[in-house]
From TrEMBL:
<feature type="domain" description="ABC transporter">
    <location>
        <begin position="11"/>
        <end position="249"/>
    </location>
</feature>
<keyword id="KW-0067">ATP-binding</keyword>
<dbReference type="Pfam" id="PF00005">
    <property type="entry name" value="ABC_tran"/>
</dbReference>
<dbReference type="GO" id="GO:0016887">
    <property type="term" value="F:ATP hydrolysis activity"/>
</dbReference>
<dbReference type="InterPro" id="IPR003439">
    <property type="entry name" value="ABC_transporter-like_ATP-bd"/>
</dbReference>
<keyword id="KW-0547">Nucleotide-binding</keyword>
<dbReference type="InterPro" id="IPR017871">
    <property type="entry name" value="ABC_transporter-like_CS"/>
</dbReference>
<keyword id="KW-0813">Transport</keyword>
<dbReference type="InterPro" id="IPR027417">
    <property type="entry name" value="P-loop_NTPase"/>
</dbReference>
<dbReference type="InterPro" id="IPR003593">
    <property type="entry name" value="AAA+_ATPase"/>
</dbReference>
<protein>
    <submittedName>
        <fullName>ATP-binding cassette domain-containing protein</fullName>
    </submittedName>
</protein>
<dbReference type="GO" id="GO:0005524">
    <property type="term" value="F:ATP binding"/>
</dbReference>
């Protein structure tokens, strides 16, 4: 997938701070997401992982600092420039957020209807390719109520990929899945990252997933109100830089 920004990071967060009202969630968070990697945001409940994701896709503005994504700044971009940037970001929310009255195929066709002028047959063909990529070719005509939780996540990923975004954000992809289904989803994410060159930003606190898919991660911490670790998750597990990181990895593996 061609990303015109060349060797520049896909996402750059520079001294980003965020809070709501008087409450500070995190301060001075700085990191780069490189092209083609699976980047994981981890940390305990309420530390601000989802908020950081929302900052990256322009749903919130940071209280200080700056986030650039694909060379643009969503806190400043307006009109057509903002729309063009948003079009290049795929997001799968925790719930999967499929429309219950539509088949999986129709769900995946939705972004193509909203953002392209492709005729119906072409939209359908593209949507079928996306469903094929996530292993759901045989389920195209099913309704969300007729499929398992793991299939719903896959369909959510297919829909998020409809417009071939160079960056895909996944919010807690393993939430609500049994370990076997979750491991299957991890495999899919790794395959897509490798085969399509898509950059993934994944919010999760599932240790097995973090270790299975993460090329690099950052860890946020509620008490520290900021980022307390960055790097290869296997390295952080084996050589934790502080007690909080050690406890996070031990607690979950025990
Ligand atoms: N729009 C908002 N207005 C006010 N407070 C908010 C808003 N969004 C999130 N918060 C608060 O900020 C804190 C961090 O929320 P966030 O969802 O980012 O955490 P998280 O690390 O993703 O947590 P979890 O793992 O439990 O989903 C929470 O206490 C939440 O209640």
């Amino acid at each position: 997938m061609a990303v015109p920004e060349g060797g520049r990071p896909v996402i750059r967060a520079e001294k980003v701070s965020m809070g709501f009202g008087q409450r500070v969630l995190f301060r001075d968070v700085t990191f780069d997401v490189k092209r083609g990697e699976v980047f994981v945001i981890l940390g305990g409940s309420g530390c601000g992982k989802s908020t950081l994701l929302k900052l990256m896709i322009g749903l919130y503005r940071p209280t200080a600092g700056r986030v650039t994504i694909l060379g643009g700044d969503l806190a400043e971009a307006e009109g057509e420039a903002r729309r063009n940037l948003l079009r290049r970001l795929g997001v799968m929310w925790q719930s999967g957020a499929l429309f219950g009255s539509m088949t999986l195929l129709e769900n995946v066709m939705l972004p193509l209807e909203a953002h392209t002028d492709l005729p119906r047959e072409a939209r359908e063909a593209v949507a079928r390719v996306k469903l094929g990529l996530v292993g759901l070719s045989d389920a195209a005509s099913r309704l969300p109520a007729e499929i398992s939780g793991g299939m719903a996540k896959r369909a959510g990923i297919a829909r998020a990929m409809a417009l071939d975004p160079p960056v895909l954000f996944l919010d807690e992809p393993s939430a609500g899945l049994d370990p076997v289904t979750s491991a299957g989803l991890d495999e899919l994410i790794k395959d897509l990252a490798r085969d399509l060159g898509t950059t993934f930003v994944v919010v999760t606190h599932e240790l097995q997933s973090i270790l299975a898919i993460g090329d690099r991660c950052i860890m946020l911490d509620k008490e520290a109100q900021g980022m307390i670790a960055e790097g290869d998750p296997r390295r952080l597990r084996d050589e934790p830089p502080n007690d909080t990181v050690r406890k996070f990895f031990r607690r979950e593996t025990a």
